[in-house]
Amino acid sequence: MLRCFNGRAGSLYQPTSLVSSRASLATHRKSEYNHRGLRISAASASQGRARSSLVDCYKPPEKGLIASLPRSWIPYAELLRLDKPTGTYYLFFPCLYSTLFAASMTSAGPIQVVGTAGLFLTGALIMRGAGCAINDLWDRNLDPHVARTKFRPIARGAISPCKAIAFTGAQLLAGLGVLLQFPAQCLWYGIPSLLLVTTYPLAKRVTYYPQAVLGLTFSWGAIMGFPALGVDLLHNTLALEAAAALYFSCVAWTVLYDMIYAHMDIKDDVAAGIKSIALRHENNTKAVLTALAGVQISLLAAAGIAAGSGPVFFIGSCGSAALSLGAMIWKVQLKNVQNCWWWFKNGCLFTGGGITVGLLLDYVARITGFYEEAAESRC
Predict the structure, then answer these.
(1) Where in this chain does the entry annotate a coiled-coil region (predicted)?
(2) pTM score > 0.85 for this model?
(3) Residues 315 and 206 in one domain
(4) Three-state secondary structure along the chain?
(5) Which CATH number does the domain housing residue 321 bear?
(6) pLDDT tens digits, one per residue of 361-377
(7) How confident is the model at residue 7 (pLDDT cuts 50, 70, 90)?
(8) Residue (of 105, 94, 91, 99) closest to 117 by Cα position
(9) 63 lies in a domain?
(10) Stretch 14-23: mean pLDDT, rounded?
(11) Which domain range does residue 22 map to?
């Protein structure tokens, strides 16, 4: 900075033009800060008005399970998606698959298998609710701009973020309580899934493939059934191969069905800046779905080979999955929101149910000695 001496010894002065420039800059910055503050206040006010408008437009459910609950409970039931259990089924099926695979490998008794499956169903219900709450907390400023999500309880202001965090914490503790009912080794297998639960909502902001993160999260149960029935994956190579193949088969399935689900919001996602695989592959979605189905069925068959499954599994589980997935990919109308929802909801039962029946019949064939008798009769 230019410094000059005036006529008095040792005193400094700054040129008048520089002082004037500084004053102008300070005034400009003050004005900018004021405008920025006004913009922030305006944005906050706008969000407040938007939420107030959503509250005014919101209509509580008039039928179904949630409608029968006390009015103060309804927002929390909506946060859990109690009226939309499909997500719970999608989370539960991988747990059920791995349980039935492990049961066939260990010849576990039916009571033990049913009890284990019941615990997994309870855990799926709780953890799916926790996952939805975490997702809605992340998306609370995005959801009001998407038609399908704008009336979610946090988005419309029916539940504050602080209350939602406390409620989510209670759910996670309940989930931990369920996890502790399994053998001790399950705790170490289950903890990593909590990290995945929190990353999916963030992935939607940084990549067009958040469904891959969702797949890694929702498919974790494909691992859990093995230690739940006492199978040590670290010392049983075949079980580890079966679990790995099953896990990535379920990941492919998750990406497949959630790609269809993402097509319901594709227009709103563009406006809100949300990324998805449906946006990235909007023009070749069915080709991607077909490839995912092929990967899913191939890895499912690989899991059966590693587990030593019989022909009942390959015909029942792999065959039914091929038929149901093929029919869904062929018939789903990706431009029709209602049709996408129908296939997302019912495709879960068609494909998941078919795989389960095949695994269950294979388990029954093993514990009843059907395969041995068939082999002896051929001899």
Answers:
(1) none
(2) no
(3) yes
(4) CCCEECCCCCCEECCHHHHHHHHHHHHHHHHHHHHHHHHHHHHHHHHHHHHHHHHHHCCCCCCCCHHHCCHHHHHHHHHCCCCCCHHHHHHHHHHHHHHHHHHHHHCCCHHHHHHHHHHHHHHHHHHHHHHHHHHHHHCCCCHHHCCCCCCCCCCCCCCCHHHHHHHHHHHHHHHHHHHCCCCCHHHHHHHHHHHHHHHHHHHHHHCCCHHHHHHHHHCCHHHHHHHHCCCCCCCCHHHHHHHHHHHHHHHHHHHHHHHHHHHHHHHHHHHHCCCCHHHHCCCCHHHHHHHHHHHHHHHHHHHHHHHCCCHHHHHHHHHHHHHHHHHHHHHCCCCCHHHHHHHHHHHHHHHHHHHHHHHHHHHHHHHCCHHHHHHHHHC
(5) 1.10.357.140
(6) 999 999 998 887 777 77
(7) very low
(8) 99
(9) no
(10) 47
(11) 16-57
Q: Which residues contact 57 (CB under 8 A, 6 or more apart)?
A: 151
The number of residues making up the chain comes to 379
Q: Which residues contact 354 (CB under 8 A, 6 or more apart)?
A: 316, 317, 320, 321, 323, 324
Taking the C-alpha atoms of residue 328 and residue 340, their distance in angstroms, rounded to an integer, is: 10
- Do 139 and 261 lie in one domain? The reply is yes
Q: How far apart are CA 329 and CA 257, in angstroms?
A: 10
Q: What is the pLDDT of residue 301?
A: 98
Same domain, residue pair 177 and 221: yes
- pLDDT of 53 reads 55
Q: How far apart are CA 221 and CA 91, in angstroms?
A: 7
Picking from 8, 33, 57, the residue at the C-terminal end of a domain is: 57
Q: What is the pLDDT of residue 39?
A: 45
**9 domain residue, yes or no:** no
What's the structural domain count of the chain? 2
pLDDT of residue 40: 39
Percent of the chain predicted with pLDDT > 90 = 63
Task: Indicate whether 328 pLDDT > 90.
Answer: yes
Residue of 219 and 64 predicted with greater confidence: 219
pLDDT of the residue at 145? 82
Are residue 49 and residue 109 in the same domain, yes or no?
no
- Of 185, 64, 190, the C-alpha closest to 123 is 190
Domain for residue 52, yes or no? yes
Residue 352 lies in a domain: yes
